[in-house]
């Protein structure tokens, strides 16, 4: 006979002994008194009037200039009232039938008390309603306006209006942390410093945070997750001013209730040019403002992308190539932030690179303005030197491998794939390299702690399966179990202070133009917008209940 086990809901609400910043009523004077607070409503058919550079006509003209056409309209335009999750949905699946090899030695190992575990998301990928409630266009919107309703991010998972139900579902299954992003162009539709601020957005995210806390979920906020305003590229020399204008709005209002902030998501994926310096300066200026003027006591980080480079062979050339790859991936921004050191010479000495060495003043500003290391180590990859050699490639900007000048592969020297592959080229079940990933950042940059801010596995062809098969996502469960088992070893055997792990994502997302790469711990029916837990959600929660004291 089998017995049914049910998920344990969170204890509500989250309360803090002391707030992480003064309440808005006491720090509102930190914001410029001349700022205009308003609302916008998009009506492309309205007759244009001369209502100034930031009026309703200018707002409509801004969207018109973006030349975007969404084939589907959002199915609802008001917040959906939540319903209690029936117990039948919270029944655990059958016991996980497969565990990592040699797992017996980890059954009694523990992660640190207070381990930050939960789930992550990004606004553009789940919110929908891109032209509603005053949001302005972002650089990501051109991806969402594709000639297929299946790829239309204007509809998406509709988290913007279904957030109360989603919070209810996370709390019911017992997930204690939610990382979400706030879109710059919802708060500041025109994007630039001095332009009006949208009060509907301020009210919306205030309620989202309060709803999470009331259900026992601690919020983690990403300030910028790819969706830049079309008017403010990273290369703008005034990027820092525009960014701080927006960021101060949300930090002054929500800082008392938010313990962790992510300034920018994966900026190291940008081309190696001086835009990266603009981002570093903006981050450092925000850090100083938050700590010194707002007097915030929360933690601030920047989130990096990195699938660790593993030398293809043990030859000196391949080892050097792997280190060069890491310099371009992580060292280019982490050297100045964590070590107070210059951008790696491998980057600066690459012929034709459009990035200048940091000045002494810039290094002083940037160094130490980060509280812990945060990255998205989905998998790993093999790296080899190019046939012509790294130096020859680095001296030739026309070389197709320039500027990194390395050859990447997911096949090892014996001809074996690095691990079980997902539907995209950067996710594999490859736990054999997780400890190396943790040790690399811990020993190289010597941070106070390491947060795995995203990790996940989009099961191949999952979107083509019937719902019952989609729910039984065994590969995703194996991915998380195997990954986290190696994190356990890194913590207990190597002394790495891994402080948390956030799964990508809590529901299926628009992966920048497609819904086919299903990362989510829950399915989304794009007709009814009903969510369904997958088995990976239960196995994920179960792992932390086993290995985190007090969970």
From TrEMBL:
Gene3D superfamilies, per database record: Glycosidases
Record-annotated membrane-spanning stretches: none
Pfam family of the protein (one): Glyco_hydro_1
Annotated GO biological process: carbohydrate metabolic process
Matches recorded under InterPro entries: GH, Glyco_hydro_1
Gene Ontology MF terms: beta-glucosidase activity
Top-level taxon of origin: Eukaryota
Family note: Belongs to the glycosyl hydrolase 1 family.
Name of the protein described by the UniProt record: Glycoside hydrolase family 1 protein
Native species: Oidiodendron maius (strain Zn)
